Amino acid sequence: MLRRRLLLATPALLAAPAVRAQGAWPNRPVRIINPYAPGGTSDIVVRFLAVGLERAFGQSFIVDNRPGAGGAVGTAQVAAAAADGYTLLVTNTGPLAVSVSMTPPPAYDPQRSFAYITMFGGAPILCAVKGDGPIRTMADYKAAAARGRDAVSFGSSGVGSVGHLAGMLWAQEAGVELLHVPFRGAADAEQAIVGNSTTSLWNTVGAHTGGVQGGSIRGLAVTSDTRISSVPAVPTIVEAGFPGSVASNWFLLAGPAGLSGEIVARLRAHLSAAMAEPAARERWASIGMVALGDPSPAEISGFVAREAARWAPVVRAAGAA
Question: What domain of life (predicted)?
Answer without folding.
Answer: Bacteria
